């Protein structure tokens, strides 16, 4: 395989990978990481304010009852869909238009409380929420919503975690029924999500087929899920510690009377989880990407039957556990990425060595390949073409070049793809050097510039003997510069360091191959032996005169 073909193929594969393999959706707006905050403004155009919790991962819109009327999950972390105008008002058009932006509730209401005397569709006496606070260091945004309806008072204490998709919901109903339903609709426009629940002590999940409805008693969790991918979503609820069905409750323990939490599951386009809870309840909710790393960091991959990693997922789990082990020793996520990159490049060094030698030999051979091609440029007959192929084959033998060696570069791809996916989805809790957050793009574009420089440098090292190829391939990186602007900073750091190591490795290989091939094709005349020299000298003696 020729180098230019390999580079082109790699570029196309990378472009598909980095853009989600052709998935649609808006690319992020470049800017600084979003500082989590509460926004109080009129969102839906009806009388009264709404309350929006904004962060790098999602924008969640609550009404005065504490019901979620907009649950916008961001395809690219750090995308600022909410803009502040010069007069201090807020522009929500990007969220309302919903072009490529996922609204988990899709016009319905999540966290709505339903029971005798409590009807989400009927008016209620509301008041402004209290305790609208944000603590970035503690990774939490808090609010307390309270309203009265039908003689009952509902109090919801909501805690969002800006660096994950988790929400803690404490519900207290006084002056009303002993049990209530809390509604969890989803997943946006998904027409057929998987809807399942798992009972405490159960052996397998119970699944609602099609548009059917079923009830699962004493749940350990209940979930709505799309097929796993970078753009898939999930809504998962589970009882918190100290309540029936929680992780802290032994599987064999029977819940107290009236304390068990059950879930009625409805499948189809109107997927819905209706949780039947006591008047005082505590639930944990996950509403975000149905993707392995986010679920792992939120503690959901240990739940039975919820998520089964594929081959790449298993590699990702090994990588993320290695990252966590390194963090315990180093204490800085930026340095963890540096060490991780060096370790993985060291492991893959032999494989990259084989590919590097193939590339180096191809570059050394380029002048002779051109000579052969020019020799037969005008000769298109079959005999000439066979003669050209024979000369090319002899050239390959002379330089010990195996075209199949190019394919060795694809052997590390599973690890590289899993690594890229891991870092892309990992939520770091710190920045590095000038970077405020490793999970979002560099707000100063410094990494993007370095990325472009090192990749062009690598291309030059690989094509130094073929300026035409360098100019052709260099244009690819102008396109890749745009993607570099959208990469999470942690991903870009890995790519830059890995590329720099690759450049050093290729330079070393180039020098080795040039020494090895320096004498190929050079004719060395041997010095005549003594006997031949004497014979030659004897021939030069004049014959005696007669």
Quick structural summary:
With 546 residues, this protein is of the alpha+beta class. The protein contains eleven helices and 22 strands.
What does the model show?
The chain is an alpha+beta fold and 546 residues long. Helices cover 36% and strands 22% of the residues. The protein contains eleven helices and 22 strands. Strands 9, 10, 11, 12, 13, 15, 16, 18, 19 and 22 form a ten-stranded antiparallel beta sheet that branches. Strand 1 and strand 2 form a beta hairpin. Helix 1 packs parallel to helix 9 and helix 8 runs parallel beside helix 10. The protein starts with a helix and ends in a 7-residue tail after the last helix. The N terminus and C terminus are likely disordered.
Topology of this protein?
Elements (H helix, E strand, L loop, with lengths): L2 H16 L18 E5 L8 E5 L3 E5 L5 E6 L9 E2 L5 E2 L1 H5 L4 E2 L8 E3 L10 E2 L3 E6 L4 E10 L2 E9 L5 E9 L4 E7 L8 E6 L6 E2 L5 E4 L2 E7 L7 E7 L22 E5 L5 E7 L1 E10 L2 H6 L13 H20 L2 H43 L6 H17 L14 H13 L20 H18 L3 H20 L2 H28 L13 H10 L7
Antiparallel strand pairs: 1-2, 2-3, 3-4, 4-7, 5-6, 8-14, 9-11, 10-11, 11-12, 12-13, 13-22, 14-21, 15-16, 15-18, 17-20, 18-19, 19-22, 20-21
Oligomer: single chain
> Which outline best applies?
elongated
Largest sheet at a glance? 10 strands, antiparallel
Low-confidence stretches: 1-28, 248-254, 522-546
Secondary structure: helix percent: 25-40%
- Number of continuous helical runs: 11
Total strand segments? 22
First and last CA, distance:
74 Å
Radius of gyration: 33 Å
In terms of structural class, how would the helical and strand content be classed? alpha+beta
Percent of sequence in beta strands:
15-25%
Average pLDDT taken over every residue: 78
């Amino acid at each position: 395989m020729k180098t230019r073909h390999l580079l082109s193929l790699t570029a196309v594969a990378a472009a598909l990978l980095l853009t989600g393999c052709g998935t649609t959706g808006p690319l992020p707006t470049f800017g600084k990481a979003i500082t989590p905050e509460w926004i109080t403004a009129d969102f839906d155009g009806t009388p009264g304010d709404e309350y929006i919790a904004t962060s790098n991962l999602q924008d969640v819109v609550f009404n005065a009852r504490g019901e979620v009327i907009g649950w916008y999950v961001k395809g690219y972390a750090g995308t600022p869909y909410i803009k502040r105008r010069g007069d201090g008002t807020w522009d929500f058009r990007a969220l309302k238009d919903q072009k490529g932006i996922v609204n988990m509730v899709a016009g319905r209401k999540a966290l709505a409380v339903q029971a005798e005397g409590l009807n989400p569709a009927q008016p209620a006496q509301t008041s402004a929420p209290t305790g609208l606070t944000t603590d970035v260091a503690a990774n939490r945004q808090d609010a307390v919503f309270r309203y009265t309806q039908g003689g009952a008072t509902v109090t919801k204490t909501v805690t969002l975690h800006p660096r994950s998709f988790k929400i803690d919901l404490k519900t207290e109903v006084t002056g009303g029924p002993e049990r209530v339903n809390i509604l969890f609709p989803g997943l946006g426009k998904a027409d057929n999500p998987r809807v399942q629940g798992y009972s405490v002590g159960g052996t397998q999940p119970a699944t609602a087929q099609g548009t059917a409805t079923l009830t699962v008693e004493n749940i350990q969790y209940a979930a709505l899920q799309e097929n796993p991918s970078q753009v898939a979503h999930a809504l998962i609820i589970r009882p918190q510690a100290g309540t029936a069905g929680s992780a802290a409750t032994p599987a064999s323990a029977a819940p107290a009377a009236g304390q068990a939490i059950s879930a009625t599951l409805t499948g189809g386009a109107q997927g819905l989880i209706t949780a039947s809870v006591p008047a005082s309840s505590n639930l944990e909710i996950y509403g975000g990407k149905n993707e392995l790393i986010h679920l792992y960091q939120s503690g959901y991959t240990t739940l039975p039957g919820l998520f089964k990693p594929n081959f790449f997922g298993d590699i990702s789990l090994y990588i993320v556990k290695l990252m966590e082990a390194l963090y315990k020793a180093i204490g800085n996520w930026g340095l963890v990425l540096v060490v991780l990159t060096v370790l993985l490049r060291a492991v893959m060094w032999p494989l990259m060595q084989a590919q590097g030698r193939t590339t180096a030999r191809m570059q050394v051979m380029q002048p002779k390949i051109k000579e052969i091609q020019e020799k037969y440029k005008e000769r298109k007959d079959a005999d000439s073409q066979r003669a050209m192929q024979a000369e090319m084959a002899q050239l390959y033998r002379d330089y010990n070049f195996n075209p199949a060696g190019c394919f060795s570069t694809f052997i590390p791809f599973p690890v590289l793809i899993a690594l890229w996916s891991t870092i892309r989805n990992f939520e770091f809790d710190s920045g590095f050097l000038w970077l405020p957050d490793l999970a979002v793009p560099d707000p100063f574009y410094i990494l993007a510039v370095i990325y472009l420089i090192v990749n062009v440098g690598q291309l030059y090292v690989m094509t130094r003997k073929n300026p035409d190829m360098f100019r052709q391939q260099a244009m690819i990186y102008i396109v890749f510069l745009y993607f570099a602007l959208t990469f999470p900073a942690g991903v870009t750091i890995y790519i830059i360091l890995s590329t720099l190591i690759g450049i050093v490795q290729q330079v070393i290989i180039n020098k080795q191959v040039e020494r090895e091939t320096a004498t190929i094709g050079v004719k060395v005349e041997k010095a005549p032996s003594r006997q031949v020299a004497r014979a030659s000298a004897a021939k030069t003696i004049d014959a005696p005169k007669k």
